[in-house]
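Q: Got a minute? One more chain.
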Amino acid sequence: MSTLEGKRRKWVAGVAAVAAVGAVSAPLLWSGSGDRADAKGTALTGPAGTRPQADFDNDGRADQVSGSPNAEVSGTRQAGYLAVTYGSDRPGAGRHQVLGQGSEGVPGKPSSGAGFGGHSTARDFDGDGYTDLAVTSSVGRKSTVIVLWGSKAGLHGGTYLKDAAGEVTTAVGGDFDGDKKADLVTGFGPKGLLKGPFTRDGTAAGTGAVPEPHVDDKEGEEIPNPSLEAAGDLNGDHTDDLVTLSSNETDDNTNHVVWASRYLQGGKDGFAQPAKSHIPGNGAATVGDVDDDGYGDLVVSRRGEQRDCGALTVVYGTSHGPGPRRTTLTKGSPDVPGQASGACDYTALDAGDVDGDGHADVLGGADLDSPGKEQSGSATLVRGSRNGLTGEGAQRFRGKSFSSEEGSDDSFGLSVRLADQDGDGKSDLAIGHPGRDDNAGAVYALPGAEEKLPTEEAVTLSPKDFGLSGSLTKLGYTAPDLLN
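A: Always. Here it is, folded:
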């Protein structure tokens, strides 16, 4: 079973138990951080080599997306919906919008098990200067992708993508052929790549193949069912690349899991897989230019053998893609706060430029980190520098950093996001805390800063801020564009 599949099963199992909430209520799914899009086309990267900014109304401030695919909508169980928080002068304090199938302009109607919003990715898919949002939805055993269109007023109206029907579980945005148009990868196979720009009737400019990587374990046995893990420009050619993940439990009754990742290089002639991979096995990944050398770096949360708990590794980009140079930080590294516990691995990662110095910084969420408390969770911010990722200036957050009501099994840090929500040139933090207030959930939005981030300036978002009600909503539960 792949890591992505495992994460989705954990997520479905956790939320299904609370899907029958009478009123619509959702966990925040953070989409996008980066530079403002061109008036024509899509920015290739955001600040410090991160993904483009999700800016649905094109006002120069990042917007946030919240989704609850297992929520009950109008009496229909597990129909799902999305909530949007638009950028403002204060992170997290902008206007709100709730969207689902059945909303004005959104195709389809609420249906049981559709899971609308189970995954989403933000790019300017039609090239009009406004970020759009591609959202997955399922009916029975089939699934599809709906694009919600950006406009001056924000997200408005939507269209089914004609070439995305089938078994779409993820949707990954990027410019994978180097034509400066946003594309969409929906899986492996001869038509796994949908090329942009897309028309408003849901037609792609073309399709392309996404090769399924061949990965063997140490015994030469193939590891099946690869999943998409991260996207970004890892070789400096202004074309996005893909990172895939394969994992498989061994058959020796040890419950040992084999982890392996591969790099698919994007280009005008399609994807190519280099013969050698320098990417270690991992369970979460993000892309950003940590050392500001012009090449996107791959930051991963290590899994498998020969690692320390909470290991965060940067595989530095080169003109040939991820290279042999690495930096690894753990919770035992100098200046990195926290202590190694039984489940301190990062399960969510994002990159942005928190201090505005041109180096990508990394925010990692470890929702099972539990020194002294069962699954209480944590999030850690580490900084980039000209020498790479460093523990200097690192900062750790817990639920009690923002609330006195931290409790067991609250999964603080299950979702994280770095995005410039207030337009000041610094990425702001968003951290999900789905177990707060008896699983009603919360998300904390905190402004970026050159020095220590002041938690007293955080904005706390609750279901009531979206005009929603009901307990057990687990706001802050999932993060679709993170692919973890």
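A: The two ends are 14 Å apart (CA to CA).
Q: Perfect, thanks.
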